[in-house]
Amino acid sequence: MSRESEPALPASTSVRINKFFTQHGVCSRREADSLIESGRVTINGRTAKLGDQVCPTDVIARDGTVIPWGQTFLYIKYHKPVGVTTTSESHVPRNIIAEIGHPDRIFPIGRLDKDSSGLILLTNDGDIVNEILRTEFGHEREYVVDVDHPFDEAFLRQMAAGVVILGSRTKPCRMERVRPNRFRIVLTEGRNRQIRRMCQALGYRVTALHRVRIMHIGIEGLVVGTWKELTKDERTQLLRAVGRVAG
Fold first, then answer.
1. What is the CATH number of domain 75-135+217-241?
2. Structure pTM?
3. Does the active-site annotation cover 113?
């Protein structure tokens, strides 16, 4: 991944050499150990050894190519409760940044309405935001939705085929009945209050909207109001999906 230079870490900050590789998105710790054992990694010109500690004043290279020190990019998932506003503006009551209270500066990827709940991703990697949100990439988002009265098969077919909102038809989507008045929907676009507007156009009012998945990342096991960093596999798949990692 190519990056513009980021603020350096304090010179006193040191990490094991294999962790340096994972923090900078180069490879896994196991792969880093293999590179080190093969003599392909140097620290300030000398061949690195397993267990070496490095800090921002050191020059680390793989096969002669220097790996610059920089910011460690964070990717977290948060189970947003109803009532939290997806904004970075600090003056807004119950804004998502204050609710999470992360020590690093992060911001949300996309939005989730104040009156909706469920999964939202946050990061300090500004480049990845548009890569995830761009409609042409067709990244999936899955929701479970309750409406104010039972619906029929015609409603499911119409929603799946696309509904005219804001002057144009929505893209086809996947629909599945869960209960008489609850359905599961998978979208590949994200217009403003899209699901609510689609339902309203067909004579239904959304009473609850909960996002359960973004791309391959699910909300299972994440308690309402809590967050955690993406797992190694989730992060790798996310970066691969936007072309950051060769697949």
1. 3.30.70.580
2. 0.72
3. yes
